[in-house]
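re: ur question from the group chat, yeah i did fold both. here u go
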Amino acid sequence: MKYFRSPTGWCKTEMNSKPFIPADLKLVMALVLLTDLFILLPSLSSSPIRTVMGLPMVLFLPGYALIAALFPGKDDLDGIERIALSFGLSIAVVPLIGLGLNYTPWGIRLVPVLVSVSAFTVAMSLIAIDRRKRQEDNAFMVPFRQMYVSLREEVTARPQSRLDRILSIVLIISILLSVVTLVYVVATPKQGEKFTEFYILGPQGMADNYSTNLVAGESVDVIIGIVNHEYAPVNYSLELRLNNEIIDMPERFRHIPLEHNATWEQSLSFAPELTGNDMKLQYLLYREDNMIEPYRDLHLWINVTGTRNGAYEAKTES
């Protein structure tokens, strides 16, 4: 309730109790919330919309919120300056947030970075709302309604000539095609080369110190790794051969399902029962769509002396 004095005496008027939240800052906070949902929810995180919304979250929104907090008045900056500084400050602020996270227990990972950038953007937006409220009539506002009305009148207005009409149509079509092309390129990035990593490491997890000179009963200990870069789920199968003789493998080595970009590592210990020099120990990787020809082939040349019987054991990498 607000009182004011009129020629006839004191009068009262109802104050608008509706919270003052500028439309542009509403839009900023809504975009932050939607981006968080599309990144954190498993059902939405695989959608290409995640990429489309993630770009402004990193390149524009933090800087725009900061500019809104620093310059709440409509005479502080013009529209072009606000947009340019929004991009520039976003590119500066987000790496600084990441640098700060690097010295925390959370580190530079997706969730901590997302939460930090979101919190910064929302906090700057709330400060901007408060500062604009204090500016009253001098507060900066984005005239969305006036922009819409002006654009509609510009589009629907009758051109003065046939040439003007044709040029207007060509311009509108060109803008729409540019936007559609940009969204398509961002949302559907080009796939790289399809391949599978297949490797064997020594017992220390390095690509050396393989046990190749053995006494009967000693084992060849390696770590086998598979990484799927096929842009699709793939079922793999592993086979072990010594001098072209197939060695029985546990079931978990014969069926290895992997999603795209997933990594599988297991340690494998094999003690040969045969003795000899320069025996070829092969690690063959097959795909489910072709179990005849190996998809990848790795091997070690081993020497085994003595007459003790061997044994075979496989264990999971801890």
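okk and heres the other one u asked abt
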Amino acid sequence: MKFAFIKLGAILLLATTLLSCRGQKTENPPMRTHFNMHFQDRFNAQEENPYFENGMAMRLPIEGTVARGMLRNNSILFEGVDEDGNYVDEIPFELTRDFLYRGKERYDIYCQVCHGATGNGQGIIMTGQYGYVPAPTYHREASYNMPDGEIYSAIANGVRTMPSYATQIKVEDRWAIVAYIRALQKSQNVPETEMDRFDVDLAQLVDQYRAEEARLAALAESRTARGDDEVTAARGERLYIQNACQACHSLDGSVVVGPSFQNLFGSERTFTNGNSTTADEAYIMQSIVEPGANVVQDYQNAMVPYDFLSESELQSLVEFIKTLSDE
């Protein structure tokens, strides 16, 4: 028993001694068992290196070399175009259920806020009137006829005011989004006679559609009651800014993506089909609502339809454009 008490006392004494060493300061330098790891023989970013003539430690890759995994010599896969530079018609991946659901997941993260859950171009960024160029609906003839490679290119490189998503979305996921967009196009155009094959309540969908139509009609009526049907050049100027028209149409005569609005009204417009007309009120309003109807020579059909604008809004834009003309 006595020996046990002595042993216990020795253990307690040792523990107290070890604990008393914690938190003590010393003037001695720290012990470095791997000295070369603390002080490596290397250069930091932007540091000077006298070895090279220009004194830069950070070196550009040797001309003609490619980093491992960055060759990207498959233009169809990485760019969406064939060797002749034409957009490819089909996705270079097998279309599986998992692939489509991966596209849906990525679409919901990156695309839905502008293009809408169903691809109708009515995402929250568009309906919130934040001044962006309207996202086009995928349920239009131009989108149906668009090659898969062109949609991929828009994701990878951006288009109009839409930025490139190349840094956020990897290559395979871009193609998965393209596949999901094609699925959305098919899903919104299923004949009523085939709806029985799917587990959906068609009557409920019809009721929801009618309710939304009624809501939009009531909203339009309330705007009219508030005097939102005024037609003025000042209102047209506000609409020019709110709808991001300045992204493509300048006011000073300089060419951006589309023709400048300076001296547009009353000018002679020649189209890609060889026809021509005078830019009057009817022509300008049609160009806003149906930009692909008559494409001006030397310009591409890159504008999306602004068919959501009311009659008074269209007329106000025309009045604003008139103020920019010498006539």
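fwiw on the second one: The two ends are 117 Å apart (CA to CA). The CA atoms of residues 81 and 87 lie 4 Å apart. idk if thats what u expected
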